[in-house]
């Protein structure tokens, strides 16, 4: 939802097996739009409102370099930076499409909406990658 925060959770220090997730939270803000902290407590919220994990969860893990973006369609664009895998999932977690970059080690991916509604071409993406060959 609008105003929510999407986080690529690398899963560092997660108990059990290593896996990553994409978590959505509703930040606690007051009527002025400011974050607030209740006395003698940690910043909220206590739980996520949406979580993407792979099936099985351990098939999706990146210790660094990754990210996620909520699209206007309600789907989520996810970048596993370590493997160079980019994919889009529905709110139910179904993969719509995926692509693996031949460059691997992507830093992030950003969706760029089409500028025109007619003609050839579809959605475009801006890729940022890190090369260890230089």
Short description:
Helices cover 0% and strands 34% of the residues.
Structure in words:
The chain is mostly beta strands and 134 residues long. It has one domain (5-129). The protein is built from no helices and nine strands. It has strands at 5-9, 21-25, 50-52, 67-70, 76-80, 85-89, 95-100, 106-112, 124-129. The strands form three sheets. A four-stranded antiparallel beta sheet has the order 4-5-6-7, with no helix packed on it. Strands 1-2-3 form a three-stranded antiparallel beta sheet, with no helix packed on it. Strands 8-9 form a two-stranded antiparallel ribbon. Strand 6 and strand 7 (95-100) form a beta hairpin. The termini are far apart.
Layout of helices and strands:
Layout: E1 5-9, E2 21-25, E3 50-52, E4 67-70, E5 76-80, E6 85-89, E7 95-100, E8 106-112, E9 124-129
Antiparallel strand pairs: 1-2, 2-3, 4-5, 5-6, 6-7, 8-9
- Largest sheet: spatial strand order: 4-5-6-7
Strand content: 25-35%
Helical segment tally? Answer: 0
- The general outline is globular
Name the average pLDDT: 84
| Poorly predicted runs of 5 or more residues | 130-134
Number of strands: 9
Distance between the termini: 41 Å
Radius of gyration: 17 Å
Structural class: mainly beta
Overall number of structural domains: 1
Q: Main beta sheet, described?
A: 4 strands, antiparallel
Please provide the ordered H/E string of secondary-structure elements.
EEEEEEEEE
- The amount of helix comes to under 10%
